[in-house]
Design goal:
477 residues, FAD/NAD(P)-binding domain, 8-stranded mixed sheet, globular
Length: 477
């Protein structure tokens, strides 16, 4: 069997990549060692930029319907309610440039269900219970051995292999890519999805001075569940159902019997680590296989999804449109610096909260929303204007949404796997079939070529600059 792309790991990263390739008509084989999709809430915050990605991928309506806004935090001192505050700096509601201004809460398992349903709708699938048990690569292909749930092994060849198999990635280890980093916090934590009585669902409940370490219970929208997060100052957490009940009773004052069901639980230690490189020959690393984050700030899942979103259109251009294979080098050039900066943000937030248990956690706002991520100065960002405005858009920036004069949104025109050329004050030349040309003056005078992932690739005043950029990204057909 041959597949253009073999994706290992059906978490948010692998599902996003498979989905994006499916809508581009690029076949991909997505395999997952586990018998089912991940069952826990772990990564529950969908940042504004990721919501824009989901808009483009056709799942935003399902995401908004299934989730909800972050609740206010209610602190407790023993059995008494204390301060109540907002952990989030709420976004600029009504700004046409930012259609999704607030972080949205959605348990990870639900996010994966939505992505998987969209993948199936587009004709793809996740092959569960199937492990990558070996592979080799040469200049032409990757040859992989897959072992199914019945123990039978088959050989698959692929043009490219993408490791989306998590922080303990077997693929990353096999290609010998080291991770640089280590523990952010030596204290272990217990995370669990549970159902309980005796606590309202209007707030995110926090016991900052609980015996043994701080604890939080967060109602998960669209479900009857709460997510428990309990830090342990000493000793090891017990992730059994009895251990979860005991922790809730010790930290919150609720009786152990108030926990009516433990649906999922896990123990982890916060780490921050970054892969030395995101590519090794025909193998790409994405998501937690490339970078591991503290959960503080809700950055890990979002950065992982955006890795896949960045890589998907480039694989599509190379495999389906004859773009130069060198285009794929831009994946590491663009995403590795972003992951490094995001790691700094999440690590700083974690350590700030860990240093003072008596203080309210640092508020999450613009830095964590990921709307300011850019690829300025990258290999696919070209701005040839003689005098670009000092505070205006530059090549490499996110293309902001805008209201259209005749009604609707600019994002309505960007949605889909195509490139978009915006023209204002400059007569646009005939464009390749994969480029949608729109007369739009909301960004200022010039030509703005928007990549399929919503970033400005080329900004110019001279139509003669377009053919060279088209050739760079496989649009000269």
């Amino acid at each position: 069997m041959h597949t253009p792309v073999l994706i290992v790991g059906a978490g948010p990263t692998g599902l996003t990549l498979a989905l994006d390739l499916a809508r581009r008509g690029v076949p991909a084989l997505l395999v997952e060692q586990a018998a089912g999709l991940f069952p826990g809430s772990r990564g529950k915050g969908i940042q504004p930029r990721t919501q824009e990605v989901f808009d483009d991928l056709g799942v935003i309506d399902a995401v908004l319907a299934a989730g909800g806004p972050y609740p206010l935090v209610q602190s407790w001192e023993g059995g008494e309610r204390g301060q109540r505050w907002d952990l989030m700096e709420r976004g600029p509601v009504g700004d046409p440039a930012v259609p999704y201004p607030e972080i949205w809460m959605l348990p990870q398992w639900r996010t994966q269900e939505i992505l998987h349903a969209r993948l199936v709708e587009l004709g793809g699938e996740a092959v569960l219970g199937t492990a990558l048990t070996g592979f080799a690569q040469d200049a032409e292909r990757v040859t992989a051995q897959l072992t199914g749930p019945d123990g039978a092994t088959r050989t698959v060849t692929a043009d490219y292999l993408v490791a989306a198999d998590g922080g303990r990635s077997t693929v990353r280890r096999a290609v010998g890519v080291p991770m640089v980093g280590g523990p952010v916090d030596q204290r272990p934590a217990l995370v669990a999805d549970l159902r309980l009585t005796g606590l309202d669902r209007e707030s995110w409940h926090l016991w900052p001075q609980a015996p043994g370490g701080p604890a939080m219970l967060c109602p998960l929208p669209g479900t009857a569940d709460f997510q428990l997060f309990a830090q342990f100052e000493d000793g090891e957490p017990d992730a059994s159902a009895a251990g979860v009940r005991r922790t809730v009773a010790e930290r919150t004052g609720l009786p152990a019997g108030a926990v009516t069901e433990v649906r999922w639980s896990s123990v982890f230690r916060a780490r921050a680590a970054l892969a030395d490189r995101f590519r090794s020959g025909r193998v790409f690393l994405a998501g937690d296989a490339a970078h591991i984050h503290s959960p503080a700030g809700g950055q890990g899942l979002n950065t992982s999804i955006q890795d896949a979103y960045n890589l998907g259109w480039k694989l599509g251009q190379v495999l389906a449109h004859g773009a130069p294979a060198e285009l794929l080098d831009s994946y590491q050039a663009e995403r590795l610096p972003v992951a490094a900066e995001v790691l700094n943000i999440s690590t700083s937030l974690h350590r700030a909260g860990a240093q003072d248990r008596s203080a309210a956690p640092a508020r999450r706002g613009e830095p964590t929303a990921q709307l300011g991520i850019d690829y300025r100065g990258g290999p696919l960002s070209a701005d040839t204007r003689t005098a670009p405005p000092e505070d205006g858009l530059r090549a490499g920036d996110r293309a902001p949404d805008a209201a259209l004069p005749g009604g609707g949104r600019l994002f309505d025109l960007l949605r889909g796997p195509h490139f978009t050329l915006l023209a204002a004050g400059v007569e646009p030349p005939a464009a390749p079939a994969a480029v949608r040309t729109v007369r739009f003056d909301g960004y200022g005078s010039g030509l703005y070529l928007i990549r399929p992932d919503g970033y400005l690739g080329l900004v110019t005043e001279d139509p003669a600059d377009l053919p060279g950029y088209y050739a760079l990204v496989g649009l000269d057909d």
